[in-house]
């Protein structure tokens, strides 16, 4: 989601690096997680991922 609460599905993930591989595995296992995205000069990049614990 962006800062307005809108779901984002257009941000590309670098599948070759470790972070991209970890995100892909968690997504395929249907695990809940959030990613941190940095935006500069009209470009966006995922820089971190964190698992979300369910109550």
TrEMBL record:
- What's the domain of life for this entry? Eukaryota
All copies of domain Translation initiation factor 5A C-terminal, residue ranges: 1-50
Q: Which SMART domains match?
A: eIF-5a
One Pfam family this chain carries? eIF-5a
Q: What are the protein's GO molecular function terms? A: ribosome binding; RNA binding; translation elongation factor activity
InterPro entries (UniProt xref): IF5A_C, NA-bd_OB-fold
Q: Name one GO biological process term.
A: positive regulation of translational elongation
SUPFAM superfamilies linked: Nucleic acid-binding proteins (SSF50249)
Task: Return the protein name.
Answer: Translation initiation factor 5A C-terminal domain-containing protein
